[in-house]
Write a structure and sequence with these properties.
Length: 194
Amino acid sequence: MRMEALQVYLRDMVPDDISMRRHWELVDTEWKEWDAPWEYVDLDQTELELESQGYIQSLIRRMQRLNSDEKGFRSGFEIIHKQNDRHIGWVNSYEIDHQFEWTPGINVHGIAIGVVIPSRSDRGHGLGQEALQAFLTYFRKIGYKEVYCQTWSGNLPMVRLAQKVGFREVERKRRARYVRGERYDAITYRIELD
């Protein structure tokens, strides 16, 4: 499956993507300072590597499942820059409950989406905005009426992006996130897809 935008397109993961995802998970990890950094705080290097390897294995299983089910639900896509057909990141989604907490398919209230562009040199050019809008188009096409986005108040680029795309704040948990020695708000946004 492929979703088009002006500068980028979204597509399913292919086997060649695994080495780049492994690199981003284990080597070029600066992006983890912005994408839920509290999840990595108490992990030592060995634990980080094991967690990342498990995640890569789950990506491989997802890729294999989608290769056999072209019409199945996509929880994410890879972002490809059209200029040089280069893999620059991904969009993903996860289920949340009525309290806007992650849930593994139990008491699902909605779906939250996000975008990750690991390389600093690829940020700030509107590529993440295009990718997020294309991902919203996917959810609109498969019948979703609303989608959520979650971040923390210290991730100002994501806060601005969510607002620019049209998300509206629906919940703010004051000082709920502890990042690099400081407390930040956990923010949940919603956008209606009409």
